[in-house]
Design brief:
Elements lengths: L3 E6 L5 E4 L11 E12 L8 E3 L2 E4 L2 E3 L10 E5 L4 E3 L11 E6 L2 E5 L6 E4 L6 E7 L2 E7 L2 H10 L6 E5 L8 E2 H7 L12 E2 L7 E5 H11 L14 E4 L12 E4 L3 E10 L20 H6 L12 E10 L1 E3 L2
Parallel strand pairs: 17-18
Antiparallel strand pairs: 1-2, 1-3, 3-4, 3-18, 5-6, 5-22, 7-8, 7-14, 9-10, 10-11, 12-13, 13-14, 15-16, 17-21, 19-20, 20-21
Length: 319
């Protein structure tokens, strides 16, 4: 991936800018603080991420350039109520690796399973309603072959199905509603901010220096990999741990703009090792985050790591 340089602007309220060095519209008082080192795309909720060199930033998450495949526009549901299933209930989902064969074909590989291939154009066998945090999302059922594959992998329990949300025709979830359902403050969320199948935000930013601080405090415990936090954007080169909590406006290139909405409250999913899908007995990184006084939000006792973003100005990064 081409180097993306980061500039931060300190003012009464600290602002933060992310852009190419040649960008001619960066705010006054901006200073270089680091660079983006990784972009990760999660096509399916709670499955493994895909590291990409380039991504189209949209208001509802990353999109694979030249395709209609969007971040967390696929999801596993279960039962008569079509409730969403995540790695919180089924840790083995973290070991399912999506990949792309061409513009509209997605493949799934998992331990001891044959490859499942789905063509997006062939997905809509029927329309169903999926439920995510109390909201209903009109979705396209991906058929019995996919359902049998997912059910067999998740313990031979029938009833699991794979669904896809076509954002061109489906009514999307309100980010404000999603956060209110989990009793979090939403002062910086606009009515127009929408989600597909994401929990509370289409983007998550973390920094390497903050992860290093967490690992430094682990002492005798094995280190936490960044994959445990499932970030969309990873930043390196800034000097102070957790300074990203104060970054407000984020610019990438000469077109894309993000706004930080809130810190990300972390749950039990972070304690599940993404390499082997087993829960850590030491309850890390939650214990360390609590010791670092990372309880930043009213309405929850969950410690925070990383920050939710919304994309205010879409575009391709890197260009």
């Amino acid at each position: 991936m081409d180097e993306i340089l980061i500039f931060g602007a300190a003012a009464a309220a600290i602002k933060f800018s992310l852009m190419y060095l040649g960008w001619n519209k960066r705010p006054k008082q901006a200073e270089l603080v680091g660079k983006v080192t990784r972009l990760t795309f999660y096509p399916v909720k709670s499955m493994a991420g895909v590291i990409v060199d380039q991504a189209l930033c949209t208001s509802t998450g990353f999109q694979l350039p030249g395709t209609d495949i969007q971040d967390r526009s696929w999801m596993v549901i279960y039962g008569e109520e079509n409730r969403f299933v995540t790695a919180r209930q089924e840790p083995a989902m973290l070991l399912i690796k999506p990949s792309f064969n061409n513009g509209n074909s997605i493949s799934f590989d998992a331990p001891n399973m044959e490859t499942l291939r789905i063509t997006v154009d062939q997905c809509p066998t029927k329309i169903t309603t999926a439920r995510v945090w109390g909201a209903e999302v009109e979705s396209l059922d991906c058929g019995d072959v996919a359902a049998e594959w997912i059910s067999r992998y998740l313990g031979n329990r029938p009833g699991h199905r794979l669904v896809h949300c076509d954002t061109k025709v489906s009514e999307l979830r309100s980010a404000e509603y999603a956060l209110r359902k989990v009793r979090l403050g939403v002062e910086d969320i606009k009515e127009t901010d929408k989600l597909i199948f994401q929990d509370g935000s289409a983007y998550l930013l973390t920094t390497e220096v903050s992860l290093n601080e967490v690992n430094k405090e682990l002492r005798d415990s094995r280190e936490i990999k960044v994959e445990s936090f499932r970030p969309s954007i990873i930043v390196s080169g800034n000097k102070t741990p957790f300074e990203e909590d104060n970054w407000k406006e984020i610019y990438i290139g000469d077109k894309v703009k993000f706004t930080t909405t809130m810190p990300c409250p972390r749950c039990v999913l972070t304690t599940i090792d993404p390499v082997n899908a087993t829960k850590r007995e030491d309850n890390q990184p939650l214990n360390v985050l609590n010791s670092l006084s990372r309880k930043l939000l009213k309405g929850t006792d969950s410690p925070c790591f990383g920050n939710f973003l919304v994309c205010d100005r879409p575009g391709l990064i890197p260009e």
